[in-house]
Amino acid sequence: MVQHRFENYSDQWNWALSRLPISQPWVLKLDADERATEAFRREVNARLFNAEPQENAFIVNWRLIFMGRWLKWGGFYPNGNTRLWRHGKGRFDRRAVNEHLLVDGKVGVIAAPINHHDYKSLGHWIDRHNRYSSMEAQALLKGDLTGQTNPRFFGTPVQRRRWLRKLYFRLPGRPLLYFLYRYVLRLGLLDGLGGFRFILLYAVFLYWIDLKRIEYRATGELPVVLWPPRGDPHPVVAQSELQRKVDAALPLPGSAPAEALSSRFSEEMVR
């Protein structure tokens, strides 16, 4: 186990990719509330064994399970992000939240999904998204709308979402339009109360972002990110040989910074 002081999501990942002694050729980004399905494991084993030399990453789809229910409609599935990549061929852009992997090479697709469970309480969800809304508002106020991803409607799923994101922030009444788009146009209503609850909550989260930008224009003060209390580094881990080596190490060979990689990464042409 290794510890590192948290600054933001992108920097935490880039630090780990450049400093940790990763011995495996592939890296999978899997959050603590996500579970790989058996079908996903089988497909990954088959695809990595037969991966083309220039195929350096894969888009992974995940199923959102909110309050115990899989939200199949509303445009939430399939929901693809680049989550699996060759070590040394991917770095995260410099967005503090909603970070995205920049890939040097061709990107394929894993069809079988992973499951994303919102295990914690609704209070945790609201608290977490309050932080996300402040971080997102800060990024927007600094002019960072899409990170280092090239928005393209006919590109990868991430590029298409970035293109829609640019369109979204040009529209009036955005949170209401988002709700109608997800619930009516993308048939989120077919998920019953579960779909209604989640889409309404997310529309409110988007409204928080707008409100925090309005507050900044009125007060001149950036939105505050309210982090939960953090403990001190665990003494056993802090004194371990691995931790000392990682803390003293220079970035690993071939671990170019995100800015350098972004100038050469491919447009993620999906096979």
Summarize the structure.
Helix content is 41%, strand content 17%. The protein is α+β, with helices and mostly antiparallel strands and 271 residues long. Strand 3 and strand 4 form a beta hairpin.
What does this structure look like?
- The protein has 271 residues and is α+β, with helices and mostly antiparallel strands.
- It has one domain.
- It has helices at residues 9-19, 38-49, 122-141, 157-168, 174-185, 192-219, 235-238, 241-248, 258-262, and strands spanning 26-28, 34-36, 55-66, 69-70, 80-86, 90-92, 101-103, 106-117.
- Helix 3 packs across helix 6 and helix 5 (174-185) runs antiparallel to helix 6 (192-219).
- The radius of gyration is 20 Å and the shape is globular.
- The chain starts with 8 loop residues before the first helix and ends in a 9-residue tail after the last helix.
Descriptive labels:
271 residues; alpha+beta; 6-stranded mixed β-sheet; two-stranded antiparallel sheet; 41% helix; 17% strand; globular; disordered C terminus
First-to-last CA distance: 36 Å
Helical content band:
40-55%
- Judged by helices, strands and strand pairing, the structural class is alpha+beta
Largest sheet descriptor = 6 strands, mixed
Gross morphology is globular
Element-level helix/strand string: HEEHEEEEEEHHHHHHH
Number of helices: 9
Low-pLDDT parts are 258-271
State mean pLDDT (0 to 100 scale). Answer: 87
How many structural domains does the protein architecture include? 1
User: Tally of extended strands?
Assistant: 8
Q: Supply Rg.
A: 20 Å
Proportion of beta-strand residues: 15-25%
